[in-house]
Amino acid sequence: MLSLVQNPRVLRLPNLHKIPLKCLHASPTPSPAAASISSAQPTSQILTIRKSLLAGETTAVETAKSYLGRLRRTEPDLKSFLYVSSDEAVLKQAEEIDRKIGNGEQLGPLAGVLVAVKDNICTADMPSTAGSKILEYYRPPYDATCVKKLRENGAIIVGKTNMDEFGMGSTTEGSAYQVTANPWDLTRVPGGSSGGSAAAVSARQCVVSLGSDTGGSVRQPASFCGVVGLKPTYGRVSRYGLVAYASSLDVIGCLGSSVADTGIFLQAISGHDKFDSTSSKQVIPDFTSQFTSVDDMESKPLRGLRVGVIRETLEDGVDSTVVSSLQYAASHLEDLGCTISEVSFPSFSLGLPAYYILASSESSSNLARYDGVRFGNQISVDGLSSLYGNSRAQGFGAEVKLRILMGTYALSAGYYDAYYKRAQQVRTLVQEGFKAALDENDILISPAAPSVAYKIDEKKNDPLAMYAGDIMTVNVNLAGLPALVLPCGFAEGGSSGLPIGVQMIGAAFDEEKLLRIGHVFEQTLKDLSFVPPLIANNF
Amino acid sequence: MGSAQTQTATQEKQQSAQLKASPQTQLKKVDELLKDYEAVIGIETHVQLNTLTKAFCSCPYNYGAQPNTSICPVCMGLPGALPVLNSKVIECAVKVGLALNCKLSLNSKFDRKQYFYPDLPKGYQISQFDVPIATSGYIDVDLPVEFGGGHRKFGVTRVHMEEDAGKLLHTGTGSYSQVDLNRAGVPLLEIVSEPDMRTGIEAAEYAAELQRLVRYLGVSNGNMQEGSLRCDVNISIRPIGQQEFGTKVEIKNLNSFSSVGRAIDYEISRQVLLHSQGQADQIVQETRLWEEGAQKTTTMRKKEGLSDYRYFPEPDLPGISITEEYVDDIRNSLPELPEMKRRRYEKMGLSMQDVLFLTNDISVAEFFDATIADGADIKLAANWIMGDIAAYLKNEKLSISEIKLTPQELGELISSIKGETISGKIGKEILFELMAKGGTVKGLIEEKDLVQITDPSEIEKMVDKVLVDNPDQLAKYLSGKTRLQGYFAGQVMKESKGKANPKLLNQILQQKLDAKK
């Protein structure tokens, strides 16, 4: 599989720049459709909207209509939303913003920005099913803290996005309701579990979207859909109102079409929350100050930064195009002034099984509340245990049942030490491994996924193959670190190629550095556009 | 903390003694057998803390409120809701831990205890498993005098924090049940004793002492009827001399201290009878229910092996870290606890009966302390409180803090009698007025003109008047019916409206009568 590098253990990355770029970059020439608008670097939609609103070039209503129109047009193909707000409700909020502009009132940083919210994040005015039948029609009585903050910042919530049930999956095929398509190739999955959120941003059905990331659920779909995905440090964003999958790993993340958008978006939802005692009181830096124009950048804007390439992420089982894209990303960073070195991470491969034990264990407990007594269809039976059994049998999908069973087993008396406790020990090793690597480096890079988006149904009946796809991302959750995924290349596939993302991992609470590096990287990446063919002519 | 419901331990124990007497006489045989066995008893107590809000959310809890009126996304276990610890819970736990002479864990954590039941909204209870907040303590207990008295020390294995579950309300038809989540998330302390108790009265007294302790500390109302204090008893028997424990049985549904004692006595007899008849194998590990009506225990559910609660650390809550300074601050703010009070009263010369009575209820003890603080006679103060005041409280169903009488006025009353300003009889009369309506002793004496007449010339006048008004009786007296002296004394007292100093009155009357002879 590794066409370029037969044995990554002897890979000498510092020499990468000696290899001709063309040879490293295995992507086909971008298709004419994508190429036609490829001259422009990704721009912040949030800042563009704000500028044109304040300049009177457009109105919030016109902006909303333009996104809603595209949403309605593309949604039958994509199915990225489980619920879309009525035009009336969206436009009413847009009118309110226009009224404020007219009155010269202060505007929130996200005024007029259409945001999609993953369906496992509670919204009081919309259903919140977490992609599960057991929560069909469920409407929470409250807004999640991050949703509340978005509204306070002027954002307009346009709808709820599709996802693997309770976040358990990597394809969004695990939704109890529908299968979402990848905007780059409708026969492929958008990734998961935040597949709806990634597809919606990719197809510009919304400006930015909220996802959640327990083992890579923001980053892998970002990679598959060619968008930017930011998984913040554990504790940076309140989890209050996020339907729990694995509490010690879950974080709410941001998806956008540029690094700047995810940074501005993160700014709005970060901070300690008295309703989440695992949320951090760390100061929130101004993430937005560093999104300078490429024209203002010096020739080596990232001079002096040390970047470590995680050796184990380029080994067997990783597609050659992914490896070469990563190498291309490394050489691009080197061109920008970074020092590139190779980092070995012996505990890397242990993370995946540890992750599946811990996540399953916590989920078996977190999902106990869906017992048919208060949620979902209460199956009418004589005894209590059959009430539980039948309600859960009918309410949960196969993948959820599988993980509940695995988690229940791992926590059972006599097995706890061998599974849960061992996995916690591995978690400590992974944390130590990252700490050592990040003491030596400013950031670490790796692919976001071992492959590009695969075909719908391809891995549906092979959960182990699907789990293996999470190898690049789960360790970051075990360590609670922030990571940014952004597009760095293409592989063959679809009509115009399939996007590949690079993952940048930073030290805890150092999202600022990730966003700065990501922004420079993105703004200087030549001849690549990440607008999918589906909408390329209309955006 | 209405003390009307405060069953004093002593009152309850007397009841239990009577109730115990009858089956014992019937079961002479069992009584004989009992001598060859000893019971091993441990108690698990759940104490509901009286914090203003629940353990992990800001809902208040009021016993008896309309179902599901004090609930929120957190205590309902709605998707996405997260617990946030009420720091008062830790404070209460540390207080109880210190009062029980425990070793405190400066670093502990919460765990999830998982089981399914409709009153448990999350499918798990937030509790503490392997690192409880307090361990290895003990409690001092003085057994009631009527049960032979004696001092005991019972070990406390652990104290941990957890949340209460809701309640199931069963409908009349039995076709469905309703869930009330008002109680869900209310903070509890679970206190587990060592298996140190040997008799029903020891166990009942252990529970009563825990109630006193939490009330003295002000962390719970300790009310058993409302379920603020719940005791589950573990009990086994073994032939005297045997080292290993017998099979243990758990007893639930114990709603008073006397039922704790009686249930244990019943269970000991049941087990001893089975054991002595060679049917020890019929004593199985199970949960039995105490039936108050039938005065017996019955099988509730047999335990098939250990239930697996699949405990694991609660990921939604950070670890609990407390400092030595924090613990010291709490230690220094602890009130005088029942055991300390008992030893102090004992040193003051009060009998153990008095000591136990006065210390049973913190508000009574505080009233007593305040009364003697101003120098009132200790024994007299104790007698008034245990006698007329206690009787009044019982009749009126009031607690001592609800009556109008203040400790200062009780002290005044005692010194007014001692200083002979008023008679004891009048003292009693105004006591009731003070309890019901309030006011001051001085004010009442003045208002009602109750000052004792101690002027001999005034009493002389009244004696003379009585002797003149009753010539017939006087003649009979002079002819030898000396018992009529009492009649004259009564008439003089009546004439003085009860105010004449009795000693002086009798003295003067005697002189006058002698002079007539």
Write out key terms for the chains shown.
heterodimer; A: 539 residues; alpha/beta; Amidase signature (AS) enzymes; 18 helices; 11 strands; 12% strand; disordered N terminus; B: 517 residues; alpha+beta; Arc Repressor Mutant, subunit A; nine-stranded mixed beta sheet; three-stranded antiparallel beta sheet; 17 helices; elongated
Brief summary of the model shown:
The complex is a heterodimer of chains A (539) and B (517). Chain A has 539 residues and is of the alpha/beta class.
Secondary-structure blueprint of this entry?
The complex is a heterodimer of chains A (539) and B (517).
Chain A lengths: L20 H4 L7 H4 L9 H10 L5 H19 L2 E4 L2 H16 L11 E5 L26 H8 L3 E6 L33 H8 L5 E6 L5 H7 L2 E4 L19 E6 L2 H11 L36 E5 L9 H16 L3 E5 L7 H16 L17 H12 L2 H14 L5 H24 L2 E5 L15 H6 L5 H6 L3 E9 L6 E8 L5 H14 L8 H4 L3
Parallel strand pairs in A: 2-3, 2-4, 7-8, 7-9
Antiparallel strand pairs in A: 1-3, 4-6, 5-6, 5-10, 9-11, 10-11
Helix pairs in contact in A: 4-5, 7-8, 11-13, 11-14
Chain B lengths: L8 H18 L1 H7 L2 E12 L38 H13 L3 E2 L2 E2 L2 E4 L9 E4 L6 E9 L8 E13 L3 E4 L6 E4 L6 E7 L6 H18 L11 E11 L9 E6 L2 H20 L9 E6 L4 E7 L9 E2 L6 E2 L2 H10 L4 H10 L4 H9 L1 H12 L4 H19 L10 H12 L5 H14 L3 H7 L8 H14 L1 H8 L6 H11 L6 H15 L1
Parallel strand pairs in B: 12-13
Antiparallel strand pairs in B: 1-10, 1-11, 2-6, 3-16, 4-5, 4-15, 6-7, 7-10, 8-9, 11-12, 13-14
Can you walk me through this structure?
The complex is a heterodimer of chains A (539) and B (517). Chain A is an alpha/beta fold and 539 residues long. Chain A has helices at residues 21-24, 32-35, 45-54, 60-78, 87-102, 145-152, 195-202, 219-225, 259-269, 320-335, 351-366, 384-395, 398-411, 417-440, 463-468, 474-479, 511-524, 533-536; strands at 81-84, 114-118, 156-161, 208-213, 228-231, 251-256, 306-310, 339-343, 443-447, 483-491, 498-505. Chain A has an eleven-stranded mixed sheet, sandwiched between helices. Chain A is globular and about 70 Å long. Chain A starts with 20 loop residues before the first helix and ends with a helix. The model of chain A is unreliable at 1-39 (pLDDT under 50). The termini of chain B are far apart. Helix content of chain B is 42%, strand content 18%. In chain B, helix 2 crosses helix 5 (257-276) and helix 9 (362-373) runs antiparallel to helix 10 (378-396). A nine-stranded mixed sheet of chain B has the order 2-6-7-10-1-11-12-13-14. Chain B has a three-stranded antiparallel sheet with strand order 5-4-15, with no helix packed on it. A two-stranded antiparallel sheet of chain B has the order 3-16. Chain B has three domains: 9-312, no CATH class; 361-447, no CATH class; 456-516, Arc Repressor Mutant, subunit A (Orthogonal Bundle), CATH 1.10.10. Chain B has helices spanning 9-26, 28-34, 87-99, 200-217, 257-276, 324-333, 338-347, 352-360, 362-373, 378-396, 407-418, 424-437, 441-447, 456-469, 471-478, 485-495, 502-516, and strands at residues 37-48, 103-104, 107-108, 111-114, 124-127, 134-142, 151-163, 167-170, 177-180, 187-193, 229-239, 249-254, 286-291, 296-302, 312-313, 320-321.
